[in-house]
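Task: encode each sequence below as structure tokens.

Item 1
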Amino acid sequence: MATTMIASNSNRWGTVQPITGGAWATASMVLAVLGTPSASATTFASPPMVPCQRATATQASSEVDPWISESLKTIRSLEADWDGYGADPINETTIKRMEYFLNDLLPKNAVSGSIVPGADGSLQAEWHLDNTELGFVVEPTGEYSSWVRDLRQDVEIERVGLDAWSLFHSVGQLALA
């Protein structure tokens, strides 16, 4: 059974060092940072099919990893003032979007992570691995972002919109499988 952490959405560490070159260059850099054997030779000829920048999906696949289901069940049960500072419960549309995105982005049999609610109504899925930390955020507005942190080199990459989707998908396929 997965443990669900209930915390605010303030899980950013250190200084963000911007890396330019778009999502596909970023994915190549991330592969290099993660130590993939063929990272320097990795190229991305064309991007995968991704949704528009504002998330509209509200239907989740019927095949949901148990840790995701349990985490979201706990989040659905949050009442007003769940954080002790007056936060409203997370709305169902945001929860369904997170469920949809994780089902779409995570590799089959992925390492379990944590899904944490933000006092602003957002949800953040996060993983804290030996050398890498990874997160995907769904805002109540339907916008999303992702971040990856290499703990060995103290480098963090953050992206929003389509670039967030690409970054999380690329790193998630390697780090969470």
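Item 2
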Amino acid sequence: MQQLFIDLIKLRIKIMLKKNIIYFLIILFTLVAHNTFLNSYIILNNNYESRMNKYGGFCEPEGYGFLEFVYKKYKLNFNLEVKNFKNMPSITGYFYNVNRAMNENYIVLIGISELEFNNSYNNKKYRIIEKKDNCYFVKKNV
């Protein structure tokens, strides 16, 4: 009787270990498939600004670095209109502050070609304040 009880306990432990190993392997596979370990390493070893500049780019593809540069250099206390010409989502949301007004006189143009800029914006209506590669910070002439 006592031997039967011990055998039942051993069998129950084996079944629990098999289930736990299967669960552990499923969780481990999911973590590896989603690059969780690499992503955690990148987050822990790089600060927010360097990660945003690396993935958002300075001027292209999204122009995060250029918009950050404009806000810091000119110490703007209003929201800017941002137009991206590279079929990418607007990055206005990264810098938008609900407590600030939108200033329609200033525009940031991301990824615009020089030819397209000259045809559309480089006339008497707009003045270039800052230019880096294919990114422009312009002001409407009022």
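Check on item 2: The mean pLDDT is 86. The CA atoms of residues 66 and 72 lie 10 Å apart.
End of task.
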